[in-house]
Amino acid sequence: MCGIVGYVGHRRALNVLINGLQRLEYRGYDSAGFSLIENGKIVSYKKQGKVSDLVVLLNGLEFKSNIGIAHTRWATHGEPNDINAHPHLDNSGNISIVHNGIIENYATLKLWLKEKGYFFKSETDTEVLSVLIGYFYEKFKDLEKAVRIALSKVKGTFGVAVISSYEPNKIIAARRGSPIIVGIGEDEYIVASDASAIIQYTRQVTYLSDNELVIITKDGYQTKTIDNLPTSSDIQVLEFDLSKIEKGGFEHFMLKEIFEQPQTIQDACRGRLLVDEGNARLGGLLPVIDKLQNVDRILITACGTSWHAALIGEYLIENLCGIPVEVEYASEFRYRNPIIRQNDIVIAISQSGETADTLAAVQEAKRKKATVLGIVNVVGSSIARETDAGVYIHAGPEIGVASTKAFTSQLVILTLISLLLGRMRSLSQEEGILIANEIKALPEKVNKILQNAEQLRQIAKEFSYSRNFLYLGRGYNFPVALEGALKLKEISYIHAEGYPSAEMKHGPIALIDENMPVVFIAPKDPIYNKVLSNIEEVRSRRGRVISIATEGDENMKKYAEKVIYIPETLPMLTPILSVIPLQLLAYYIAVELGCNVDQPRNLAKSVTVE
Ligand code: M6R
């Protein structure tokens, strides 16, 4: 989704801005642009398409400016084109802004400004904000005041950065519901919506809070609230390195991230898995340990892949701890008036920690006085900051739009939470030790599956012509079927659906013919024989069966046209293994079809709008 970079310091700003925009490309966007203050004047360039198209537009032009702002836009108001791209200027052309989020009352403000004689070139909500800032600047002749007053009139969400030739040495940035991070270098500052645009220059950062504003010059920065009250800022250190946001020899980030999973699974467990005690230690949950002890019911809320992880979490927690769990899409939860009782705990799962629907669900749960926990990847993100306590998954930056390593790490954390809660209840130490040992063995097992990637590439070649796929699984592997289907449709644009295997006969079976590949997740578990019957039903209608089966299950070869083996593990841990071939299958099919794997059409990495 939209991305912001701003720079003030001793370097040529344009280089830092273009570099930053490239680092933000993974978020998904449709146009890009920048403004500099060059020789006391605002200079702006913007272009529909990729950052590389913007660079072509510059055609070797040189700018000496040391201050500027830039943006990648993911269209919300107005189609993706050059005019709607950011930055947007006020009517004088002396104030330029870039904005993430949505100004909900933009139409009212626009009308009000039009009646005063102001004009608009674009269809965006952002231009309304820039013109509004211009209006207040004319009144107060003070940029900071103009920005503050304008933002106080705005309903909705924003991460915003502003420069002006009236006060050419400063960037003003502010946030409400959309992240802004200030990177603190030596005599230089980078402001961005995402740490990946900053890490190359400095690891020291400060995160703005909601309704906070920062005024940055090359000599320092000052934070305050939008209502002009001083705030203090906490300096934090970014923990990932540059290599984590580079492809490191892989053709795509998605493939790199799939192959990182042995490591990321281990990282999720590091210092947390107590094998000898058959338990888990989760420091981030210590503040709510009493609440966990007394919890009567858990509600898990999330979107997309994180929601699939939540469904597996439901099975895990109910099985290991006997605590009732409900899972709900965050977009539904936030508007549905959910019932939250005194001893309920709400868990929000999010890779980015910025998903607007999940964040709103967290806020709704907090409003209802629930204890809210987060399972989040991005350190310092909005959901991580809004929740009462939580566990970071520590998967490192996930750049590919299709979530892969975050999913398996979320599952590891959910398993650790279940272990912890289970041991507080009736789960014996013996059972705990068994589970802990199996968790410990996962990285090696994932490695083994990855060594078989070539088989998946061959299968992908054969099946990439199919226009529809069905994914079927049962029990713990039903959500894996949903996830496999989501992966495929996201990056290859092939229609795919996931179902519990036994539901097939209630409708989807009508689709089965010789052109329909059906991917069964059929490990050796207590419902294996039931799944075999479902496979028979597909075969008898000439559907083409691809099976994910447990190593040693030679019998499966009689049932399926293709069999992909995964190592044996406990049923509750199979999703962490069975999803890997599905990620690879989706990846190789998308590559086969020539799709843009890391930045699929219409998708954004973190969905910061409703
Ligand atoms: O950052 P989050 O985990 O909150 O994101 C939720 C979904 O937007 C995300 O999982 C999306 O479905 C991915 N593109 C899936 O690959």
Question: How do you describe this structure in short?
Answer:
With 610 residues, this protein is an alpha/beta fold. 35% of the residues lie in helices and 22% in strands.
Describe the structure.
- The longest helix has 20 residues, at 405-424.
- 35% of the residues lie in helices and 22% in strands.
- The termini are close together.
- It has 610 residues and is of the alpha/beta class.
- Helix 18 links the parallel strand 24 (517-521) and strand 25 (544-550).
- Strands 3-2-4-1-10-9-11-14 form an 8-stranded antiparallel beta sheet, covered by helices on one side.
- The chain is built from 19 helices and 26 strands.
- Helix 13 runs antiparallel to helix 14 and helix 15 (442-450) packs parallel to helix 19 (574-592).
- The chain folds into 3 domains: 2-240, Glutamine Phosphoribosylpyrophosphate, subunit 1, domain 1, CATH 3.60.20; 244-440, Glucose-6-phosphate isomerase like protein, domain 1 (Rossmann fold), CATH 3.40.50; 448-610, 3-Layer(aba) Sandwich (Rossmann fold), CATH 3.40.50.
- Residues 303-306, 350-352, 355, 358, 401-403, 486, 490, 603, 606-607 line the site of 5-amino-5-deoxy-1-O-phosphono-D-mannitol (M6R).
